[in-house]
Known about the structure:
Blueprint: H1 4-17, H2 22-26, H3 36-47, H4 53-67
Helix pairs in contact: 1-4, 3-4
Amino acid sequence: VRTVYDVFHFLISVMTNNNLGVFEVFNLAGDGRIKKTEVFQVLRMMSGQSLLDDELAAIVEQTFAVSDLNK
Length: 71
């Protein structure tokens, strides 16, 4: 069973493997840092209204928990 989190990470890996500028996609402010609010906004754009805000927030929190290098 795939979770939304798994799907999100699959999409990121596809973009990364195809050199699609993943960092630039998520760094909406252009300040060189990806913030949780930016990831949330991009996920909202990607998912439309198919996910609830709570679901998106959970994905963002999981993502930062496992991949935030600036902890």
